[in-house]
Amino acid sequence: MPNWVEQNLHVVGTKAELDRFIQTGFLPRKEGQFDHLLDLHRLCPLKRGEPKDTYTHDSAVVLARSRTKTQASFEMITSWDYPAEFYARLAAHWPALAFCCTVNEEMGSFGGIIVVLNGDATELVEDYAAEGYSRRTHKRDIRKALDVWGAFLTAGRDCRLMPKEPWLRRSRPFDAHFDDDGWYYFRSREAMLKFRARYGGLAALRRVDGEWRRTR
């Protein structure tokens, strides 16, 4: 059995671009197959003459997925390693989309995050046993990158809600962003209330002067 590398990939953009990303790369399992896949070569094709093993994997196994109109997430695994070169090329092949991916090797030998935003890729995946590795520095750098991602994800979205049992639905056709803690972010209170009326939700909050406060 291989050691698995867990990756939680978030993709943010317009509905049209998200649809194109999913239609291009997501391969639902067919009869007789066990897994859904994300095809890395279809999403970021190699240039003519590049070695076929430029990516460490041809595809990732998708264990779970969810989406709104403006964001999708894929919980995935690959064996032994993660496809670093694939993530490095996302900005070039999908310039209208933003990406954030957490990476964790199941035995705890390496991990970190990758953020692709406004055409720039920040790769903060580290080997924990490498000479000179500093956990404190690594955590600080990850926190800075996550702060940038969080600011992007919630910009102009000053209302948030935590849906009841969010895992029960794979798709919610709303203009909403979401984070790994289960919060969904909306552009207006009216949009949030429409979402809650359809799916239920807990702790409706509104951001006022930089602080989240309860709202009805």
Strand content: 35-45%
Name the overall outline. globular
Q: Give the termini distance in whole angstroms.
A: 51 Å
Spans with pLDDT under 50 lasting ≥5 residues?
none
Number of strands: 13
Instruction: Provide the structure class.
Output: alpha+beta
Please write the string of helix (H) and strand (E) elements. EHEEHEEHEEEHEEEHEE
Strand order of the largest sheet: 2-3-4-5-1-6-7-8
Helix tally equals 5
Q: Percent range for helical residues?
A: 25-40%
Count of separate structural domains = 2
Task: Specify Rg, calculated over alpha carbons.
Answer: 18 Å
Average residue pLDDT: 95
**Biggest sheet: strands, sense, closure?**
8 strands, antiparallel
Q: What's this entry about, in short?
A:
The chain has 216 residues and is an alpha+beta fold. Helices cover 26% and strands 36% of the residues.
Description:
By secondary structure, this protein is α+β, with helices and mostly antiparallel strands. The chain folds into 2 domains: 151 residues, no CATH class; 56 residues, no CATH class. The protein is 26% helix and 36% strand. The strands form 2 sheets. It has an 8-stranded antiparallel β-sheet, sandwiched between helices. Strands 10-11-9-12-13 form a 5-stranded antiparallel β-sheet. A hairpin with a 5-residue loop joins strand 10 and strand 11. The longest helix is centred in the last third of the chain and has 20 residues. The chain is globular and about 55 Å long. The relative contact order is 0.14. The mean pLDDT is 95.
